[in-house]
Specification:
Length: 486
């Protein structure tokens, strides 16, 4: 047992720290902001004091109802933009009263001066305040944003004096002395922490446990016997290596709270119907554990989009099995705009996605436009770029500064025409220092002239044999020419 291996104060500190995180999560918090502090969202003490003063005012019920209605409308639209259907988004919002209350509190905090003089916010002002905030939460919590919305509870489980609440991502580190001091108080009824014991046995270290708790505070509430262990055993039965499970729990700790029979298995069966190879589940889950928390509507939206692009059943199977992360992206906000951008070069997008599904993940502003500008500035046409992308679908995934620019600068010294790159863009996929530069130096030293593809595609052994043959043929031609001249 891991807790037995640990000795003395070390064991006590570890157990106390985890129980401290557990206690913080279950304690009554004075405001919704404090709940989010434990997830790494910082609120200043000044704002907190101002909110306490402001919240003492009594708002007209009609105004509060109107604000809640608008907040629900904003949240519904936001969830739909993440891939949920209108019906599912509406059901989620209707079950998320605590989160709506948090949004209202956020709204009041941002516009204190307006409320103090009795001026109501316009619909546009409410949306302009809440939308950026929701987007910031999405960037932080990713695929389990919906779970966060539904499980945002501020009601206490048991009455206890509130601990000071963390104000940054280092929440458990900064509050460790307080947590340890509180939970380490002598008590004959104090029980060991079974969650910590089990997680340590599983191979998680303290930093991983703290990170998982920061990401999803409810993780500290999960029973090792009823929640964590059943999920772990389920993953082991699927073939997931025990050494990989701590990484999965850190990435998606909220999976422990999902019903295996009611949520996880149904979505797995549905994904198998859509093309996921059931023999590959261990690899799929390790690559993208968040896949198990998606809704059928979200998966179906992506599958329909892939069919729309012209992918075959085998292509969709490859995407879902080898690149499951694709399903986590929004069709309208991410996948479709990227696909349309590629189409603007006249390429067959179905072929591009089939050969390199991760191309759909690329950011238009961060990846696509800078690379396109790079080739335009060097005299390549739209047709040239389309040809290169068709022949090397991961061209746009290559680093501009780390790969494309230095390789282009070296290519410029080699004496080849740009048309050679259009015919063989795979040049950019080889290592400059380990393959391109040394092989070209050898070719030049031997006085040979060969194509880019002939120089780069062969293995080291094959390349050596090829050079010997070319050198032998060149010497034979020189000898024959010298004989004829006599």
């Amino acid at each position: 047992m891991a807790m037995k291996i640990l000795s003395g104060s070390c064991s006590s500190d570890l157990s106390s720290l985890f129980r401290g995180a557990f206690y913080i999560n279950r304690t009554r918090l004075t405001s919704p902001e404090e709940v989010f502090c434990c997830q790494g969202i910082s609120f200043s003490s000044t704002d907190s004091r101002a909110n306490e003063s402001f919240n003492s005012r009594v708002e007209p019920p009609s105004l509060l109802a109107a604000e809640k209605k608008e907040a629900k409308s904003v949240l519904t639209l936001f969830l739909m933009q993440q891939g949920l259907s209108k019906a599912v988004a509406a059901r989620t919002v209707n079950k998320s009263d605590h989160f709506i209350d948090h949004l209202i509190s956020r709204l009041h905090s941002s516009h204190k001066s307006r409320y103090l003089v009795g001026r109501e916010l316009t619909t546009l002002e409410i949306r302009d305040t809440l939308n950026p905030y929701l987007q910031s939460l999405l960037e932080e919590h990713g695929n389990f944003m919906v779970d966060l919305v539904k499980n945002f509870h501020t009601a206490p489980i048991e009455e206890k004096p509130a601990l000071p609440v963390c104000r940054s991502h280092s929440s458990l580190d900064s509050k460790k002395p307080e947590a340890v001091s509180y939970v380490s108080a002598p008590s004959p009824a104090a029980d060991p922490c079974p969650q910590l014991s089990y997680l340590l046995e599983l191979g998680m270290d303290l930093e991983q446990i703290k990170l998982a708790t920061r990401k999803y505070p409810s993780f500290a509430n999960y029973s090792s016997e009823r929640k964590i262990k059943p999920l772990v055993e389920f993953l082991l039965d699927l073939g997931v290596a025990k050494s990989e499970i701590p990484k999965i729990l850190v990435k998606r700790p909220h999976l422990c709270g999902r019903s295996i029979s009611g949520k996880i298995i149904p979505i797995m069966l549905y994904l198998e119907d859509m093309g996921v190879d059931k023999k590959q589940w261990a690899k799929v889950i390790f690559r993208s554990p968040g896949l198990l928390s998606l809704s059928r509507q979200k998966v179906q939206a992506v599958v329909n989009f892939l069919l729309e692009l012209g992918l075959s059943g085998d292509g969709i199977c490859k995407v879902l099995t080898r690149y499951p992360k694709t399903v986590s992206y929004s069709v309208e906000d991410n996948l479709r705009p990227t696909a349309e951008y590629f189409k603007s070069f006249g390429v067959n997008i179905a072929i591009i996605v089939h050969r390199f599904p991760a191309s759909l993940w690329l950011s238009i502003e961060g990846n696509l436009k800078p690379v396109t500008k790079f080739f335009y500035e060097r005299g390549f046409s739209v047709e040239d770029i389309g040809t290169m992308v068709s022949r090397l679908p991961n061209l746009y995934a290559l680093s501009l500064t780390g790969s494309l620019i230095p390789k282009w600068e070296f290519f410029f010294t080699m004496g080849y025409s740009k048309s050679k790159l259009v015919k063989f863009p795979q040049y950019f996929s080889y290592s400059l220092e380990q393959r391109i530069r040394p092989r070209f130096a050898l070719v030049k030293e031997l006085g040979l002239t060969i194509g880019l593809d002939c120089m780069l595609v062969r293995s080291d052994c094959g390349f050596e044999k090829f050079l010997k043959m070319k050198r032998k043929n060149m010497l034979a031609d020189e000898l024959s020419s010298h004989t004829e001249s006599k």
